[in-house]
Amino acid sequence: MKYLDEYRDPVLARRLLAELHATATRPWTIMEVCGGQTHTIVRQGIDELLPAGIRMIHGPGCPVCVTPLEIIDKALAIAARPDVIFTSYGDMLRVPGTSGDLLGLKARGADVRVVYTPLDAVRIAHENPGRSVVFLAVGFETTAPANAMAVLHAAASGVDNFSVLVSHVLVPPAITALMDEPDTQVQAFLAAGHVCAVMGWTEYEPIALKYQVPIVVTGFEPLDLLEGILMAVRQLEDGRAEVENQYVRAVRRSGNAAAQDAVRTVFQVTDRTWRGIGPIPASGLALSAEFAGFDAEQRFSVGDVVTVESPLCIAGDILRGTRVPTDCAAYGRACTPRTPLGAPMVSSEGTCAAFHNAGRGLEM
Hints:
This protein is α/β, with parallel strands linked by helices. It has helices spanning 10-23, 35-43, 46-49, 63-66, 69-79, 102-107, 118-127, 144-157, 171-180, 193-199, 205-211, 222-238, 257-266, 296-299, 315-320, 351-357, and strands spanning 28-32, 54-58, 84-88, 112-114, 132-139, 162-169, 188-192, 215-218, 243-245, 267-274, 278-287.
């Protein structure tokens, strides 16, 4: 495919691997903070081709996976109402809540619809003035601008039967929380290129300085990741701790100003609970006071939902990078893509799904 094959060139990949082997003189541990990067690393076997001692840790980079259980249970409670049309991206429909998922609720008759943009949900609300239409607004900084634009469009158009159930999370506070853990093993990060395409990388610079940890903004193709790992290893070998940009074709230091303006207009920073990890201060977005009328959580009074996680699931350890899916007794047995116990086995960016799809640790 034009403009894609060049980032999958096996000759260049071998050259980058040879340079990595020549550069690394000691063990290093690097975390990628993006589920898309995780899937490329595992699917292509990049982690198995690295020099001995270079270890990749798969971090909390799957926005579906870190959406807290209470949000899923609130979504289920709202979607079950007969007066509601509940809309979501497709990857959220099979994320398990305490007592089921949105796909199961749809099978039992709830009006749950998959949309491709939040503006589709606004259109559905406009076409159905007698019903409430809710969009499940989750994700990192990458999806926040589109969700902000949907709220702005609904407000400007007077579509007052539209609301959003918000669970946006922010990457820099999560990196800070990981580095503050006393047993952290992370020595460098690969930052998510799509997040930085929106926000730039200025927020990462004080983190690199404070913790003396290299951060490399990286793309998602095999050559992107090999080059990003090489750039991180060079910094580690040189004793440097800087923010560097591998993803130069898509990311600028300042990011996308128009997208940032939309996010700041509609949302405000708030504390957020990450599924499997727990509360992280100032790590999420919530609707600002000006747009509180579009808050589905308030509109449907679902603030008192009680949640219960599966005792078999070790998703929290996997999201923190302290364990891998094959450490889980349920992996590939009680927990599969068809019968998931936790979100990392459901999402297209989940680490457990990446391992399972690649056949890692499965009896053949």
